[in-house]
Amino acid sequence: MSIAIITLSIVIVVCLVLILLIATYNHFQDYIIRINEADVSIDAVLRKRFDLLNKSIGIIKANINTDEEILEGIVKLRSKKLTNFELDRSLYDAINEFHAIKEKYENLQTNEEFMRIDINLMESESEIVGLRKYYNDIVTDYNKLVKTCPSNIIAMIKGYKAKDYFDGNNLDNEKGTVKL
């Protein structure tokens, strides 16, 4: 009788451990999916911003007489393959240049198409700020799973590593680590 109770106890403990492992694994998968979805959304907004700035080059050149290169950072980006972290930093610099050009040449402020691009850039800034916050919130929860016990055991087994935060312009290197 006692062997049957011990065997049943072992089976119950093994089943509970398996349920815990499966639940933890599924929790990781949920966060990975959400991080990927947020990353795709960020990518779409960054591409939109890139396209707007790229489109503005022709408008700017058509409305001002200058031999200097306009938004040359955007022109250089056309042939590069960048991470979202790198693209965001480059676009931030280009948007600052865009606004400096807008202030310098007042006739651009009367151009309807140029001003439409300016409005769309401002709207996309709101979008990207919200998406960064959403991404970072998910990454915070994911990183807690990676670093806390017992879920860190699953992370170690599956090779899950802590993810970097998307902190906009304060990024330190190409991997997207936050500069403190």
Helical content band: over 70%
The share of residues in extended strands comes to under 5%
Fourth-tier CATH superfamily name:
LemA-like domain
Q: Give me the count of strands.
A: 0
Question: Whole-Å distance between the termini?
Answer: 63 Å
Shape: rod-shaped
Helix and strand composition category: mainly alpha
Compute the gyration radius: what is it?
25 Å
Number of helices: 5
Assigned CATH class: Mainly Alpha
Order of helices and strands: HHHHH
How would you summarize what this structure contains?
The protein has helices at residues 2-63, 72-77, 84-104, 112-147, 151-158. The chain is mainly α and 180 residues long.
Walk me through this protein's architecture.
With 180 residues, this protein is an all-alpha fold. It has one domain (2-158): de novo design (two linked rop proteins), CATH 1.20.1440. Helix content is 74%, strand content 0%. It is built from 5 helices and no strands. The longest helix is centred in the N-terminal third of the chain and has 62 residues, at 2-63. The protein is rod-shaped. Residues 169-180 have low confidence and may be disordered.
